[in-house]
TrEMBL record:
Subunit record text: Binds to RNA polymerase II.
Entry-linked Gene3D superfamilies: P-loop containing nucleotide triphosphate hydrolases
Molecular function in Gene Ontology: GTP binding; GTPase activity
Main enzyme class: hydrolase
Protein name: GPN-loop GTPase
GO CC list: cytoplasm; nucleus
Positions of region (Disordered): 1-42, 361-387
Location of the protein in the cell: Cytoplasm; Nucleus
Family: Belongs to the GPN-loop GTPase family.
Biased composition (Low complexity): 25-41
Reported function: Small GTPase required for proper nuclear import of RNA polymerase II (RNAPII). May act at an RNAP assembly step prior to nuclear import.
Chain intervals with Basic and acidic residues compositional bias: 361-375
C-alpha cells in the first residue's frame, strides 16, 4: 500500500496535518447547506453534545432522532447511529501512518471528515421532514472539537442550516468539589463565547449523585462560599475559587440547567423542554446575528471588488493618457453587483478534493444497506490495494 493511502480513506499528505482543513471544505459545506435548507419547510433542531456521552438515552422517547457520531476513536458505539465518522476514516491507520498521538489522530480524522461534510448536510436535509431532532456526538476530548478548525467549521455550518444548540454534559459525581465545579463552569463559559450558540448545562449521572447541590451553588452565592470554606482540600485555591464563583454569577443567569441520567433516562423530558427553549433563543438571538454577519461579509466582498475594479479602470485611463493602447472591457467583466452573491462561495480549486477523495458517505438507516456493509466495503478495498 502507498504511504499516502489510508485503508479506509485516501489521505492527501497536505491535508493530514492537524488543525489545517482549508477554506474549500467550509465554503462547499456552507453552499450545499444553503441550497438544501430551502428545499424543506421543517427544520429539526441540532443538539451538539459536548463532554460526556448522552446519546443512548434519547431512544427512550417516542421521537425520531438522527444521530451523527463524530468520535473516530470510540471502540464500540453503545447506540445505533445514522452517520458514523468511522465509516470514512480509519483512526488507527491515521495514527500509525502519520506517526501521530491519539489527540493528533482525532484532529486529523476530523479534518478529513470535514472535507466531506457537504455529503452529511445532504443526507440530513433529505431526511429533515421526518425528523424530530439531529443529535451530534462529539469526541470525548472536549478541546479537540471545540477549539479545532474542523470543529468550528462543523458547528458554524450546522448552525447556518438548522437551529443548533449546545448540550454541555457534566459528570456530576466528579463535580462535587467546588474547585472542579468552577473549572467545569469556566470551560462551559469559554465554549459559550466561542460558539455564541444557546447552551444547556446537563448534569449527567443524577442516578448516582443528585445535582441539587449544583443548582444551589449556581443560585445561592453564600451556599457556594460555605462549600468552599468547608472544602479542606481547597488550600490556597480557596480564595481564587470563591472569587471566580462571584464572577460567574452573571454567567449562570444565561444558562438552562437540567439533571439527567443517561442510563435510566431520568430527566430527559426536562432536557428536551430546555432544548425547545434554546431553539426559540436561537431564532431570537443567534439567527439574526448570523444573517447580519453574512450580509456584512457579502457587502465587504462586493465593496472590495468594486474598489479593485475602480482602481483598475483608473490605471487603464492613466496608461491611455500616456499614449498606451486602450483596452476595452466587456460589460460582463464589470458587472460586480450581479456576480458578488452568486460567486460568494466559489473558490478556485474547490473541486480538488473531489479528485483525491473517493469515499461517499451513506445513511446507515436506509433499508437497502446492512449494518456492517460499509465496513466490509472498506475492508475489501484495503485488501485489494495490499495485493
Amino acid at each position: 500500500m502507498s504511504s499516502t493511502t489510508n485503508a479506509a480513506f485516501p489521505i492527501p499528505q497536505a491535508t493530514a496535518s492537524a488543525g489545517n482543513t482549508g477554506t474549500n471544505s467550509k465554503q462547499s459545506a456552507s453552499s450545499t447547506g444553503k441550497q438544501s435548507a430551502s428545499s424543506t419547510g421543517k427544520q429539526p433542531p441540532v443538539i451538539l453534545c459536548v463532554g460526556l456521552r448522552l446519546t443512548a438515552s434519547v431512544y427512550t422517547r417516542k421521537q425520531t432522532p438522527y444521530v451523527i457520531n463524530l468520535d473516530p476513536a470510540v471502540g464500540k458505539l453503545p447506540f445505533a447511529c445514522n452517520i458514523d465518522i468511522q465509516d470514512a476514516v480509519n483512526y488507527k491507520q491515521v495514527m500509525s501512518q502519520y506517526q501521530l498521538g491519539p489527540n493528533g489522530a482525532i484532529i486529523t480524522s476530523l479534518n478529513l471528515f470535514t472535507t466531506k461534510f457537504d455529503q452529511v448536510l445532504d443526507l440530513v436535509t433529505k431526511r429533515a421532514p421526518e425528523l424530530d431532532y439531529v443529535l451530534v456526538d462529539t469526541p470525548g476530548q472536549i478541546e479537540i472539537f471545540t477549539w479545532s478548525a474542523s470543529g468550528q467549521i462543523i458547528t458554524d455550518t450546522l448552525a447556518s442550516l438548522l437551529p443548533t444548540v449546545l448540550a454541555y454534559v457534566i459528570d456530576t459525581p466528579r463535580s462535587t468539589s467546588p474547585a472542579t465545579f468552577v473549572s467545569n463552569m469556566m470551560y462551559a463559559l469559554s465554549i459559550l463565547y466561542k460558539t455564541k450558540l444557546p447552551m444547556i448545562l446537563v448534569f449527567n449521572k443524577c442516578d448516582v449523585v443528585d445535582a441539587a447541590f449544583a443548582r444551589d451553588w449556581m443560585t445561592d452565592f453564600e451556599a457556594f462560599q460555605d462549600a468552599v470554606r468547608a472544602d479542606e482540600d481547597a488550600g490556597f485555591m480557596g480564595s481564587l475559587v470563591g472569587s471566580m464563583g462571584m464572577v460567574l454569577e452573571e454567567f449562570y443567569n444565561a444558562l438552562k440547567v437540567v439533571s439527567v441520567s443517561a442510563v435510566t433516562g431520568a430527566g430527559m423530558d426536562d432536557f428536551f423542554s430546555a432544548v425547545d427553549e434554546a431553539v426559540a433563543e436561537y431564532y431570537v438571538d443567534y439567527k439574526p446575528a448570523m444573517d447580519k454577519k453574512m450580509a456584512d461579509k457579502k457587502e465587504a466582498l462586493q465593496k472590495s471588488r468594486q474598489e479593485n475594479l475602480t482602481k483598475l479602470m483608473l490605471d487603464m485611463a492613466v496608461d491611455n493618457e500616456n499614449g498606451g493602447k486602450e483596452v476595452k472591457m466587456s460589460s460582463t467583466a464589470i458587472n460586480v453587483g450581479k456576480t458578488a452573491e452568486s460567486n460568494f462561495y466559489d473558490d478556485d480549486g474547490a473541486n480538488e478534493d473531489e479528485e483525491i477523495f473517493s469515499v461517499t458517505l451513506e445513511d446507515r438507516s436506509t433499508p437497502s444497506r446492512a449494518a456492517d456493509e460499509s465496513f466490509n466495503r472498506f475492508l475489501g478495498k484495503a485488501t485489494s490495494s495490499q495485493k
